[in-house]
Design a protein that fits this description.
Strand content: 15-25%
Number of helices: 12
Strand order of the largest sheet: 1-4-5-6-7-8-9-10
Radius of gyration: 17 Å
Distance between the termini: 38 Å
Largest sheet: 8 strands, parallel, barrel
Structural class: alpha/beta
Number of strands: 10
Length: 262
């Protein structure tokens, strides 16, 4: 497994988007007013005494775990997350490895929380595709866009549609690239996308590089309340929690237990 395999998995989708664009058939962007404020939801005071905000993730499968919950309904899980106290919802829209769909964003929107489109996005047409959904934010992975000018262009394009861009990093080199592109909404992934191994200590250590004015999200290997507390102490503003919730018998109940006082 390596990053190139994720890129290859997107080629069929990109070909379809190029055909649609050449025929003038790309869907129209959603009005900016439809989009809820993603970053603001992470910067507000954490509710219910939780160490920090949680972005609860909807996904049906993953490359590291295989099938997780293939029959899960995004609308149902999103409502459960909202009721349990999530600050936002991450929706995995990648089809081959995660069992997702772009349509899952529209299904999750009635839950009333900001939505993050999490996918392997590296082409302007994917940003345009996202603009036709109610997503509040999208994920840009530094390793997929190692050119700072391209990363900046994708981020600026997203912001032009009222979509906030979360730039994911796994190293100091990625962080330099993210900052060169002008990003200030940073997600640190404890999972190496080449090997799929996780290293929470790296994630916590890297938070020492955080600058004033930046909003940081800790992602992957976040499973317990103590993990949230450690991330908060390191300086993170939020944590993205996915597999630990989706593997539970009831994702909403699992999130509620994660957030409540011990």
């Amino acid at each position: 497994m390596n990053l190139q395999r994720f890129i290859e998995a997107k080629q069929g989708e990109l070909r379809a988007l190029r055909r649609a664009a050449s025929r003038g058939c790309m869907p129209l962007p959603q009005p900016i007013g439809v989009r809820r404020r993603f970053r603001a939801s992470l910067e507000a005071a954490a509710a219910s005494g939780a160490p920090l905000h949680v972005i609860a993730e909807f996904k049906k499968a993953s490359p590291s775990l295989g099938a997780i919950r293939l029959d899960a309904a995004p609308a149902e899980v999103a409502r459960a997350y909202a009721d349990a106290g999530a600050a936002a919802i991450s929706v995995l829209t990648e089809e081959k490895w995660f069992g997702g769909s772009v349509s899952d964003l529209a299904a999750a929107w009635p839950a009333g929380l900001p939505l993050l489109r999490k996918d392997f996005i590296f082409d302007p047409l994917q940003v345009e595709q996202t603009a036709a959904t109610p997503a509040s934010a999208l994920l840009l992975i530094a390793a997929l866009t190692p050119d700072a000018h391209l990363l900046q262009d994708l981020r600026s394009q997203a912001e032009g549609y009222g979509i906030e861009a979360v730039v994911e990093i796994v190293s100091r080199e990625d962080l330099e690239l993210a900052r060169e592109s002008g990003a200030s909404l940073i997600q640190v992934n404890a999972r190496n996308l080449e090997t799929l191994a996780t290293d929470r200590s790296m994630c916590l250590t890297l938070a020492g590089e955080k600058l004033p004015g930046e909003t940081w999200i800790a992602a992957s290997a976040m499973k317990t309340r103590s993990h949230l507390a450690e991330a908060a102490c390191a300086g993170y503003d939020a944590a993205l929690v996915g597999s630990a919730l989706m593997q539970a018998p009831d994702p909403g109940t699992a999130l509620k237990k994660l957030l409540q006082h011990p």
